[in-house]
Amino acid sequence: MRRAAAVFTLAAALCTLPASAREQRPGTGSANPSAVIAAELAFARAAQEKGQWTAFDEAAAPDAVMFVPGMVYAHGWLKGRANPPAAVKWQPHEVWSSCDGSLVLSHGGWQGSGQGARATGYFTTLWRRQKDGSYKWIVDAGDALAQPLAAPEMVSAHVADCPARRSDDERASAHPKQASQRALPPLDPAHRDGRSDDGTLSWTITMAPDGARNLRVQWTNDGAPRVALNETAAAPPAAPAKAAP
């Protein structure tokens, strides 16, 4: 489903961030890519220590979605689900943050404990900052690869251009309150999207009837919207037909 070996320690990962990204002030209203790298590494460590689905459940926002292979609310699917005997391992390779730090995209590779076609792949996760300043994931996607995703020498971090300053009233009207787990609307099985509070990072998921999906993430860079990531996962294999009696 996702994730690869967490070979970076937290200290090493943070030290390799570009100076421009590290020097952003942490906290509400500013970009802090290192906080999401730390969240990814803690997430990966929890999967090994507590179990894969336990870690996914604990790190997910109330309205987080995942693909199994159809799009589902994560907490509903994970509730009561037994952890696999061995959790996948993963590492972040690259992150993109909105200017205000309210939304961050993380991309990297995963490695499973099994053999064959689903033993390695890539993951893409969107993280949303919570009221207390922590990050929870809201979208977790990825796919298997025939060959492991090449790990970079350092984690790359990018921060979107900042927009013109808006009033608090304008920001509040443009972005409704985060959903609570007890009042989630029905999922549209074919489409889901979102954006950062400042509009400098946005994402769209489209699902085909056969289960193929596309995740497209845009960010503001050099004064214009540009594609940060555009990934398509193929439709899952069809279930074998039952043999005639």
Tell me what the structure shows:
By secondary structure, the chain is α+β, with helices and mostly antiparallel strands. Helix content is 20%, strand content 34%. The strands form 2 sheets. The protein has a 7-stranded mixed β-sheet. The chain has a 4-stranded antiparallel β-sheet with strand order 8-9-10-11, with no helix packed on it. Helix 3 (33-50) runs antiparallel to helix 4.
What attributes characterize this protein structure?
245 residues, alpha+beta, seven-stranded mixed β-sheet, four-stranded antiparallel β-sheet, 20% helix, globular, disordered N terminus
In total, the number of strands is 11
What is the molecular shape?
A: globular
Separate helix tally = 6
Q: What's the story with the biggest beta sheet?
A: 7 strands, mixed
Going across the biggest sheet, name each strand in turn: 2-1-6-5-4-3-7
The structural class is: alpha+beta
**Proportion of residues in β-strands:** 25-35%
Give average pLDDT, whole number: 84
Q: Terminal Cα separation, in Å?
A: 34 Å
Helix content: 10-25%
